[in-house]
Structures are given as structure tokens and as C-alpha cells.
Write a structure and sequence with these properties.
Number of domains of chain A: 1
CATH class of the largest domain in chain B: Mainly Beta
Strand order of the largest sheet of chain A: 3-2-1-4-5
Helix content of chain B: 25-40%
Number of helices of chain B: 2
CATH topology of chain A: Pyruvate Kinase, Chain: A, domain 1
CATH topology of the largest domain in chain B: ATP Synthase, domain 1
Oligomer: heterodimer
Distance between the termini of chain A: 34 Å
Shape of chain B: elongated
Strand content of chain B: 35-45%
Number of strands of chain B: 10
Number of strands of chain A: 6
Structural class of chain B: alpha+beta
Chain lengths: 286, 132
């Protein structure tokens, strides 16, 4: 059995770890609240955007724009949203597993896909497995601003319009609630399902004309979807981190309880032994 | 009297919502004035001020591009950024302006040139709105 001192040491160090993890849990909880608010604050913009785009598409069923048209898919782009730090439970592995699965199902050779990465974990993963990376941003703030990812979003959309890629999918963790995040894959480009939106349709006057407007609007729309997914992903990240830290804190607590029990037993055993020795010694003297 | 319900929305949340009598924006083809009962309209905006008129005073907003939608007396402006005059960081805008001007002078390749020009437009727009 380990000595009393060894057990005491382990209890102390576990207590310190618990202190850290519980502090990290609190930090993540407050970050999650903020991130959730950010995601909510963004909803009006993305909804309005969708409404306007859908309005135009609905009132003119024959609108055409490269971003609305399906092409034969020769190369697929994947945009993955991961975190920069670890200690977020299964957050990253969910996204990366989904990426790996999708690639295995759909592609034979690495020429058929390329990946755009947000976050260091995803970047390292792809580098290690020789998955082609087109672009990446590392070290995104906890509460990203639109300007942080504007260039990347623009470039992703540009890749599509230059026909470098014929499809753009986005993989991220969708924030369902504080305890549940769902890895999701969404097709971003070409833009589909626009006609499903049931809004009031009106005959619009276009200034200067439809093509020009779609040229401005659709990239904005695609960029807004990317940013929306990032905000969603960030909220999930903090939620996942909070859950991971909470279970770490709980586990540390359990470990401390177990160790304390062992410590007390060992202490009692030592005392019993001492008493036996003393009374044994006294008996020998008589 | 009829009014327009104006809302300006950016990725970082709504910037302004309110009732106004008239709105003047700069579309890519020129200035457009919107009065109540305007027919439905969609138009991209250039980097410029959007002016809002109300009987008790006017208001300007620095809008950075985006798209304007008008439908049944509702005007929605979607832009990547938009600021009220009181929210504009004058110091920062001035610095951005100087930086962009320096870059334009040094004449690098086209992409940088275009970026600098856009940055200059944004900075000038912000300064203009503040000085009004």
C-alpha cells in the first residue's frame, strides 16, 4: 500500500487540478452565454438576408446566376470549423470524424477535394493526414467579428466562382443546447432550397438590374452563411468545453473521495499497528 | 402622414430601427430617394452615407456597401457594417485614411490598390458622416 505521505500528496494535487478545472468551467460558461448572445444577435441579419434573396428568387423563377446553378462536381470544397485549444471534449473529433467519413464515402483521390480550415486542431489534423488545405485561419477570437473571417469567406466564394471547386460544404458543430451539440454538414454552394421559403412575394423593381443585384447579393449571402456557422460553432465550442470541464471537476471530486477513504484506512491501520506494538512490548516486559 | 419603417442590420446585430419620412441612399447608379408608398425595390448600395429625414431633425449613417430592399413601406438595409455618427471612432478612421492614402501612393499591384481604394472610401465615408 502507498505510504500516507504519498496519498496525501496525490489528494493535494488532485484538489489543485479540480480548482483549475472548475475555474475553467465557469469561464467557459460565461463565454458560452456571450457566444450564444452573439449567435442570437446575428439571426436578424441572416434572416433578412435570406428573405431578400428568397424574395428575388421567388418572384423570378427564371433567375440565373452561376452560384445558383448546379455543375458537374469535379472538386468539392469542405470548410471545417474547429477550435484552437483542446480541453473541449469530443468537440473537434466529432467534426473531424464527420469530415473523414464524408471524404471516404465520396472521394477516391485527394484531387477531388480540398479543405478550408478554421482553427488549429483541424489544421493539425489535416496536415498530419495529408489532406489538401487551401486556406486556413488560426487563432480566431472567442467572440469573432465579421471582419475576422471576411477575407476567408470571400476567398471561399471566389474559389467557387472561379470554378476551382464545384461545391462547397461546411462542417461544424451545431449548437442545440448547452449540453448537446450536433455535428452538421451543410451544402453552402451552389445555393439551393431558396424556393422553399414562403414569404410574401412582390414584384420588385431592380436598380440597376437583376443580374447586377444577384452579383452583389449572392456572395454576401454565402458569406453570411459562413459567419453564421462560425458563430454557431463558437457557441458549441464553449458549451462543449464547459461540459468537459464539469465532468473533469466531478471526476476529480470522486477521485479525492476515494483517496481520502484510502488515506483514512491507511492512517487507522498505522495507529492499530502502533498500539499492537506498544501493548506487545508491554506484555513482553511483564 | 405615412412613414417608412427603416431597419439597418449588420452581422453584429441591428444598428438602427425607426420611423422616418424619407430616406436618401446612394445606389451604385446614383442617389435614390425613398418616400412612403415607394414601389418594391432592391438595389445594391455604394459606400456612402444614408440620410434619414424626420420632422424633428435629420440623421446620417455611414453604411459600408450592402443591399437595400424596399417593400410595402419597409426599408431594410443589409450591410457588412454600418455606424451612427456617435459610434464612429474618428481617430481610427483618420488613421485608416492616412494608411490607405500612403498605400495608394506607393502603387503596388492591382489587388492591393483596389483594397486600399475601398479602405479609403470607407474611411472618408465615416469622416464625412461625423463632420456633418
Amino acid at each position: 500500500m502507498a505510504s500516507l505521505r504519498d496519498i496525501k500528496k496525490r489528494i493535494d494535487s488532485t484538489k489543485k487540478t479540480r480548482k483549475i478545472t472548475s475555474a475553467m468551467q465557469l469561464v467557459s460558461a460565461s463565454k458560452m452565454n456571450k457566444a450564444e448572445q452573439n449567435a442570437k444577435g446575428y439571426v436578424p441579419y441572416s434572416e433578412k438576408m435570406q428573405e431578400v434573396v428568397a424574395n428575388i428568387a421567388n418572384s423570378n423563377p427564371d433567375v440565373s446566376h452561376p452560384m445558383l446553378e448546379k455543375r458537374k462536381v469535379k472538386k468539392t470544397g469542405y470548410l471545417i470549423i474547429t477550435s484552437d485549444r483542446g480541453l473541449v471534449g469530443a468537440y473537434n473529433s466529432h467534426v473531424l470524424k464527420l469530415l473523414q467519413q464524408t471524404i471516404q464515402e465520396r472521394h477516391q483521390s485527394p484531387d477531388e477535394y480540398t479543405v478550408i480550415v478554421l482553427g488549429r486542431k483541424g489544421y493539425d489534423y489535416c496536415r498530419k493526414r495529408d489532406i489538401p488545405i487551401t486556406n486556413s485561419i488560426l487563432g480566431i477570437a472567442d467572440h469573432p467579428q465579421f471582419s475576422d473571417i471576411k477575407d476567408l469567406a470571400k476567398e471561399a466564394v471566389q474559389l467557387y466562382s472561379d470554378e476551382e471547386i464545384d461545391e462547397l460544404n461546411i462542417i461544424y458543430n451545431h449548437y442545440v443546447s448547452a449540453i448537446s451539440q450536433k455535428p452538421t454538414i451543410n451544402k453552402l454552394l451552389p445555393i439551393e432550397n431558396l424556393h422553399e421559403h414562403n414569404g410574401t412575394t412582390a414584384d420588385y423593381e431592380y436598380e440597376p438590374n437583376q443580374e447586377e443585384i444577384l452579383k452583389v447579393l449572392l456572395p454576401l449571402y454565402a458569406e453570411s452563411l459562413i459567419f453564421g456557422a462560425l458563430l454557431d460553432g463558437k457557441a458549441s465550442e464553449h458549451a462543449a468545453s464547459m461540459t468537459a470541464m464539469r465532468s473533469a471537476t466531478d471526476n476529480a471530486g470522486e477521485l479525492i473521495d476515494d483517496l481520502t477513504l484510502t488515506y483514512n484506512r491507511a492512517r487507522q491501520a498505522a495507529i492499530t499497528q502502533q498500539i499492537t506494538e506498544i501493548s506487545g512490548g508491554a506484555a513482553a516486559l511483564e | 402622414m405615412k412613414t417608412l419603417t427603416v431597419s439597418v442590420v449588420t452581422p453584429n446585430g441591428p444598428v438602427l430601427e425607426g420611423e422616418y419620412e424619407m430616406l436618401v441612399a446612394k445606389a451604385e447608379s446614383g442617389e435614390i430617394g425613398i418616400l412612403p408608398n415607394h414601389i418594391p425595390l432592391v438595389s445594391p448600395l455604394s459606400i456612402a452615407a444614408v440620410r434619414l429625414k424626420k420632422d424633428n431633425g435629420d440623421k446620417s449613417l455611414a453604411v459600408n456597401g450592402g443591399v437595400m430592399e424596399v417593400n410595402s413601406n419597409k426599408v431594410t438595409i443589409l450591410a457588412q457594417s454600418a455606424e451612427k455618427p456617435e459610434d464612429i471612432d474618428v481617430q481610427r478612421a483618420r488613421e485608416a485614411k492616412e494608411r490607405a492614402e500612403r498605400r495608394l501612393k506607393s502603387k503596388q499591384d492591382n489587388v492591393d490598390h483596389m483594397r486600399a481604394e475601398l479602405a479609403l472610401q470607407r474611411a472618408m465615408n465615416r469622416l464625412n458622416v461625423v463632420s456633418k
